[in-house]
Design brief:
By secondary structure, this protein is of the alpha/beta class. It folds into 2 domains: 223 residues, Rossmann fold, CATH 3.40.50.12780; 94 residues, GMP Synthetase, Chain A, domain 3, CATH 3.30.300.30. The protein has a 9-stranded mixed beta sheet with strand order 4-3-5-6-7-8-9-14-13. Helix 5 links the parallel strand 3 and strand 4. The radius of gyration is 22 Å and the shape is globular. Monomer. Pathway: Aromatic compound metabolism; phenylacetate degradation.
């Protein structure tokens, strides 16, 4: 940890103890005081902050500034309980916009670009985050929001959009529609900034081929500003993150032990300069690793690997833990499969079973793919599964995030 980072860490730690009802109560309960954190090694003494705790802090116990300093709020969806509400000061909005501007600059965008923004607006952070970044860059923002694919394509052509921001699912849907309508020669897209969900190499290659764009992988989450806390560069060798505003740790998701650089674990983030709702050692549930050394692109900012999965996305079946990234790794090695898949979990004769449905390329043979899928799955993951091969477009598409797992075992 850099000395400058540690000094910022101490300042934000003191601020939340003084001003955040949530953290004041949390640390009082554990007996932790500011004087306990004398060196970077002492950070390990600080308990993690969890998503469940932030839900209990609803609506604004996390807030660490007076109401008159709050200029905006965003929140999570709240589909599994109370949403997590995050207040922003003017400085927070400015910092976030600067992060997004950095991302767009790394992706090669300039004032001359026209950026079509398809993620959602409102309480969700994505749409307005991309728009703020585009405005700070001086580019033209086309604030479409999600859905209405017919209008998306019309505006993309008529306004000459040169860059697209989207979830990987919606980028693929748009790519498929453009190919189906033979519109590729009418669009001017050259860059796509994709985020919000994990995606595999086959999906990436399909979007690149069908849209004819350079792709940049962007990362973020509502609790930590929103999208834009890291992005891949032209070398496509990990994502650069902004260590002047954020402190990243990787921990063992079971023991909580901090892992050395290069080892895969759960990402933990501390916001070093956030004012409205600073977070100390927040467990993201995202699995990645910190990458060693300087990137060959020349940027000084450190890197983390792509998001390999989430600790809460794990599927347990027949005593085996399976992450989505392992499924994508299996598909990568099988000729004739496309990028899209769906997992159906069920119980038959009091035993768990798994059906893997995959899409195939037009000229591929179903029987050969099914045989190869079963063999690779058994070899790489360790269990026997059922398979079903369907044509491209048969599996559901989404304008947001695609639900890939259907669990019928407890219905």
């Amino acid at each position: 940890m850099k000395q400058e980072q540690f000094e910022k860490f101490q300042r934000v730690f003191a601020r939340v103890i003084e001003n955040s009802p949530f953290y004041r109560a949390k640390y009082k309960e554990t007996g932790l005081v500011f004087e306990d954190i004398k060196s970077p090694d002492d950070i390990a003494k600080i308990p993690f902050t969890t998503k469940g705790e932030l839900r209990k802090a609803y609506p604004l116990d996390i807030q660490a500034v007076p109401d008159e300093e709050v200029v905006r709020i965003h929140s999570s969806s709240g589909t599994t309980g109370d949403p997590i509400v995050i207040p922003y000061t003017e400085n927070d909005v400015e910092t976030w916009g600067m992060m997004m501007q950095r991302c767009m600059t790394i992706a090669g965008l300039t004032k001359k670009d026209r950026i079509q923004i398809t993620p959602g607006y409102g309480l969700w952070t994505a749409g307005i985050g991309f728009q703020r970044g585009a405005e700070k860059l001086g580019a033209m923002a086309i604030p479409m929001g999600p859905g209405n694919t017919e209008k998306q394509l019309k505006m993309m052509v008529d306004l000459g959009a040169t860059a697209l921001t989207a979830t990987s699912s919606y980028a693929l849907l748009l790519a498929e529609e453009i190919a189906k309508r033979q519109m590729k020669d009418r669009i001017k897209l050259k860059t796509a900034i994709i985020g919000s969900e994990r995606w595999g190499e086959k999906m990436r290659n399909r979007i690149v081929d069908e849209l004819g764009v350079d792709i940049y992988d962007i990362y973020g989450l509502t609790e930590i500003y929103g999208p834009g806390i890291s992005i891949s560069c032209k070398e496509n060798n990990g994502l650069h993150y902004w260590d002047d505003h954020l402190y990243f740790e990787i921990i063992d998701p079971v023991s909580g032990e901090v892992l050395p650089e290069g080892e895969v674990g759960e990402l933990v983030v501390t916001t070093l300069t956030k004012e409205g709702a600073p977070l100390i050692r927040y467990r993201t549930h995202d699995l990645t690793r910190l990458l060693k050394g300087k990137c060959s692109c020349g940027l000084e900012y450190p890197r983390h690997d792509i998001i390999l999965g989430r600790t809460d996305d794990m599927i347990k079946i027949k005593g085996v833990n399976i992450y989505p990234g392992q499924i994508e790794d299996v598909l990568k090695g099988i000729d004739g499969t496309s990028s899209e898949y769906q997992i159906v979990l069920d119980r038959k004769e009091n035993k768990d079973c798994m059906l893997l449905r995959v899409e195939k390329q037009a000229d591929a043979e179903n029987q050969a793919i099914e045989k190869s899928l079963k063999r690779h799955f058994k070899t790489k993951i360790g269990i026997m599964i059922e398979t079903e091969v369907v044509c491209i477009g048969d599996l559901p598409r989404s304008e947001k995030k695609t639900a890939r797992v259907i669990d019928k075992r407890y219905c």
